[in-house]
Specification:
The protein is built from 3 helices and 3 strands. It is of the alpha+beta class and 102 residues long. The chain has a 3-stranded antiparallel sheet with strand order 1-2-3. The relative contact order is 0.27. The protein binds zinc ion. Zinc ion binds at residues 5-6, 8-9, 71, 73-74, 76.
Length: 102
């Protein structure tokens, strides 16, 4: 069973992939030993990103992310609190999402 720092974080993760804000984590890599937490947004459902991309003009963004070190709702240090269970933030359906911001 998942352990969350607060209800706000649990709700955020439950909503990932849906339109709006959510928290996501990328697993550690060889050069970066800690998971990287990100606060992400989707202007549309994740499944609708690719069909809409060809129709974008100008500087519109359908998705984006920024680094996140502390829980936006309760202030917990995310790497300390989730060091052993960061995988509950990872979703392979969103693989590459942070790099696909448009
Ligand atoms: Zn929290």
């Amino acid at each position: 069973m998942a352990k969350w720092c607060c209800d706000g974080m649990a709700a955020s993760v439950r909503e990932r992939g849906n339109r709006g804000l959510f928290v996501y984590a990328e697993p550690p890599e060889e050069s970066i030993k800690s998971p990287r937490f990100r606060l992400c947004f989707l202007a549309v459902e994740e499944r609708d990103l690719e069909p809409l991309r060809p129709h974008l003009t100008g500087n519109a963004s359908l998705a984006g992310c920024t680094g996140l070190h502390y829980c936006p709702w309760c202030g917990k240090d995310l790497i300390k609190f989730y060091r052993k269970n960061y995988d509950q933030f990872y979703d392979d359906k969103l693989t590459g999402f942070p790099n696909r911001a448009t």
